[in-house]
Amino acid sequence: MKLREFAQQLGLSPTTVSRALSGYPEVSEKTRKRVAEEAARLGYRPNINAVRLATGRAGAIGVVMGRSGEFHFSEFMGGLAERLGTEDIDILVSPMDDKDPKGEIQLYSRLAVSGRVDAVIVHSPEPNDERIALLHKLGMPFLVHGRSDIDVPHAWLDIDNEGAIRRATSHLIDLGHRRIAMINGRQGRTFSLHRDKGYRDALQARGIAFDPRLVAHGNFTDELGFRFARSFLEQTPRPTAFVAGSMMTALGIYRAARSMGLEIGREVSVIAHDDVFPYLTADNMVPSLSATRSSMRAAGARSADLVLQLLSGRPSEEVHELWPVELILRESTAPPPPERS
Amino acid sequence: MKLREFAQQLGLSPTTVSRALSGYPEVSEKTRKRVAEEAARLGYRPNINAVRLATGRAGAIGVVMGRSGEFHFSEFMGGLAERLGTEDIDILVSPMDDKDPKGEIQLYSRLAVSGRVDAVIVHSPEPNDERIALLHKLGMPFLVHGRSDIDVPHAWLDIDNEGAIRRATSHLIDLGHRRIAMINGRQGRTFSLHRDKGYRDALQARGIAFDPRLVAHGNFTDELGFRFARSFLEQTPRPTAFVAGSMMTALGIYRAARSMGLEIGREVSVIAHDDVFPYLTADNMVPSLSATRSSMRAAGARSADLVLQLLSGRPSEEVHELWPVELILRESTAPPPPERS
DNA sequence: GCGACAATTTAAAACGGTTTGGTAAAATTC
DNA sequence: GAATTTTACCAAACCGTTTTAAATTGTCGC
After folding, report:
1. Which of A102, B58, B109, B228 could serve as a FRET partner for A94 with CA atoms 20 to 30 Å apart?
2. Shortest CB distance from A278 goes to which of B69, B91, B285?
């Protein structure tokens, strides 16, 4: 049913009906109520594409999806979708070819000029992130999931990576560990840098020298976790503890330790960052995994909120949110074994 | 830039330009070429919402996202997005509350009448799936990822679950296993039933009695894999082999075996179904995991193709695709240990 | 009972394309 | 070379809303 027919049945003009449904003030309460009731009864729904054309809004927010190692993605999306489900806003997913770093900026550019989205979410930013500069230049509203040091105002939601890893590392030091390895995320991403800093600061605070041979960077995969852990554990003296960037990395570390006959929670301690997945929980690993924890799904839901705020005019300079991270100690962390000499 | 201005610059009418860009036959090759070139040069792009209003197409396909245990989701989405990226079609993600089974049908209903999507993808169907009946009734094009026995024509793409599990089970029998447990997916889903059938047929073909105490159903999580495997392994005599529904399930089984001091690949064999994840590979597990394998990402990409075919008018009765599944043997499968009496 | 002002409602003009129903000019047929 | 068809293009109507600008109705003070 079209607006015109619907209005005619009510004996009103399309204008008034449109306004009544959109909650404009210049329509009497009585009329508004009647319109709302009849709309429900007759099942009238405005044509979404006509609305979008007339208002100039796209009614969707864009999310770019990388190809590799994105197991966080569905949790974040889940949170986003959950929150946006109640609004009349869709989520538009664009795929990105990770192999072509130049393609990325083009993709964002296309997304912005295509007019298919009202806002964009930027993931895993770098300190000087081209995408942020671009979106700002194009005037496209966007929310950064993470942060950037770039000299361009941007709204962001981030977790306290630095604090989380500082606490995790400090805790390991408190337990008596001195050789602590870290398997971090991709080189160059802000969150990796923040984690690096948390790690180094914790060491420095206790007068432990930073050893570059104990730090690795890469995608969050089981495979890399294994390979790095393995190579670290082959050093002499070997590290007695690991700080891991993700659950998958931790799986790899567990595997590496086991393959070398080392017992986790006794000979090797591990703390990982857990984004909270329904299908793989730190509590259920053997031994259960100590973790810094922050829900990716919750971040997705909150991101949706913040984007809505941006779209309703809140200046991006105001939208900054830093979430604290829990540290949950379980069996995978313990004092180091007595030193053999 | 608007069509009108652009056309004016070219000295053509909007009609001709529109047709040239959409590839209609009644415009000369020379003109078409000129229009295309100028469009690229001047950066003219039709307003997507105007196009959608005028054509009545939504320009998007809908995907419903469940809340729990959906680590396949991002891979499937990735494939979908990859293929659809080159078309002018978006992916619209709707969240579903798994806890409310009635909400699901309402969600599909809303999605169909909202006019926001031209087609829908239905996941994990049941033999008599309400969603399929609904979408058919509403005349909304849809593709089922999986299959249903329902008496309603529907396009589908599925993998040969039955054959895959039959082969996996047969292989375990060939190795000498007689007590083979199976940890399957959610009760009632078609793919679970197919896998059940493959399992039972393999047993029957070799005269092995089906033992309901060796079969479990549930979400694909590490936790359930662990719990079921644990309870099976506590039976006497205990199973010597497992068929697992997913990689996460396999992780749980590995954990259970380990927690009971049993060595995988010697005392217990495992074959799992692997949807191919970039962050967790069967080859890298210790011992490496034998698996039936079929790429979820490829299925997503192909699903996009099939949906496009449906939208261009191919009748859904014609769109059926059954993919074979590879069986890849690795270290987790071996003959059972000699029987102790 | 009338002017002033506010509260409602409306007709008509966007929004930016596609598509229908033509019309000249060029090509073909006889 | 006239009649017919084909080719290449165009003007105008249409898709279904929102929004601007104007008209109508209602309320109030005097």
Report:
1. B109
2. B69
Distance from the A262 Cα atom to the nearest Cα atom in chain B, whole angstroms: 14
Q: How confident is the model at residue A67 (pLDDT cuts 50, 70, 90)?
A: low
As a whole number of angstroms, the distance between CA B26 and CA A42 comes to 43
Judged by CB atoms closer than 8 Å, whether chains meet at B285 and A255 is answered as yes
Cβ atoms of B91 and A92 within 8 Å: the answer is: yes
Angstrom distance, A214 CA to C4 C1': 83
Domain assignment present for residue A118? The answer is: yes
DSSP state of A278: T
CA distance B205 to chain A (A): 34
Question: Looking at the structure, do residues B227 and B254 belong to the same domain, yes or no?
Answer: yes
Rounded Cα distance between B217 and B183, Å, is: 6
| Residue whose Cα is closest to the C1' of C6 | A26
Whole-number CA gyration radius for chain A: 25
Residues A194, A283 within the same domain: yes
Q: What is the structure's pLDDT at B64?
A: 85
Tell me whether residue B329 is in a domain.
Answer: no
Assigned domain for B333 exists? no
SS3 B33: helix
Q: Tally the residues of chain B.
A: 341
Band of residue A94 on the pLDDT scale cut at 50, 70, 90: confident
Check whether residue B99 and residue B195 sit in a common domain: no
User: Could you tell me the maximum CA-CA distance found in chain B, to the nearest angstrom?
Assistant: 93
Residue A199 in this model has a pLDDT that exceeds 70? yes
The whole-number average pLDDT for the span A56-85 is 83
Asked if residue B111 is part of any domain, the answer here is yes
**A60/B226 touch (CB, cutoff 8 Å), yes or no:** no
- Find the CATH number of the domain harbouring B12: 1.10.260.40
- How long a stretch of residues is chain A? 341
At residue B302 the predicted structure's pLDDT band, cuts being 50, 70 and 90, is: very high
Strand ranges (E), chain A? 60-65, 90-95, 119-123, 142-145, 155-159, 180-184, 215-217, 241-244, 269-274, 290-293, 320-323, 326-328
The answer to whether residues A165 and A199 touch, using CB atoms and an 8 Å cutoff, is yes
* A74–B70 CB contact, under 8 Å: yes
A52–B47: do the CB atoms touch at under 8 Å? no
Q: Is the pLDDT of residue A74 over 70?
A: yes
pLDDT computed for residue A98 by the predictor? 67
Short-list B106, B105, B101, B81, CA closest to B93: B81
Range of A20's domain?
3-46
- Residue B57: which nucleotide is closest by CA–C1'? D15
From the list B249, B122, B129, the residue with the least C-alpha distance to B185 is B249
The pLDDT tens digits for B183-214 are 999 999 999 999 999 999 999 999 999 999 99
Contacts of B110 (CB under 8 A, 6+ apart): none
- Looking at residue B99, which CATH number applies to its domain? 3.40.50.2300
Q: Which of A48, A248, A279 to mutate to test the interface with B (most CBs of B within 10 A)?
A: A279
In the structure, how far is the CA atom of residue B29 from the C1' atom of nucleotide C9, in angstroms?
A: 52
Query: Which tens digit of pLDDT belongs to each residue from B96-150?
Result: 766 666 778 888 888 888 888 999 999 999 999 999 999 999 999 999 999 999 9
Q: Assign A330 to helix, strand or coil.
A: coil
Alpha carbons A174 and A170: distance in angstroms, whole number: 6
Query: What percentage of chain B's residues is helix, strand, coil (to nearest 5)?
Result: 45, 15, 35
Read off the pLDDT band of B90 (50, 70, 90): confident
Say if residue B95 is in the same domain as residue B9.
no
